[in-house]
Amino acid sequence: MNEIPATEVHRQDYINDFLTMSKALKQCQRKDGFWNVSLHDESNFGGKETSGTALFVYGMAWGVRNGLLDRKEYLPILLKAWNAMTKEAVHPNGFLGYVQGTGKEPKDSQPVTYTSVPDFEDYGVGCFLLAGTEVYKLK
Predict the structure, then answer these.
(1) Which of 5, 26, 81, 107 is the most buried (most CB within 10 A)?
(2) What is the mean pLDDT of residues 107-126?
């Protein structure tokens, strides 16, 4: 959205999609702050997943910072997720747990655990750092 001109014909469509998606994500956040691999069915690859959670934190923090999402409503949600990731996914040596690997389907990269090393874990760290930069900007 930072790069799309205000005069671009579909800009409002993108904003509306962002708002709709943020509202839906709010409803399916886990009690511990993470989101599951499967957003619609916690019994289908349920469990903590860091990369998706980090991207949702990034988006919501960006939305709050840019005035698209209500700060009072979304700040607690994104901070709950950020705090869960920093407390439960980051190992003492910096390794990031609960990162889903690549694959055609979620089943291709199971199990997602604290100690499992996915086949391409760098993207998870990138997502986490991206989220951190946006949370930091909320200060």
Answers:
(1) 81
(2) 81
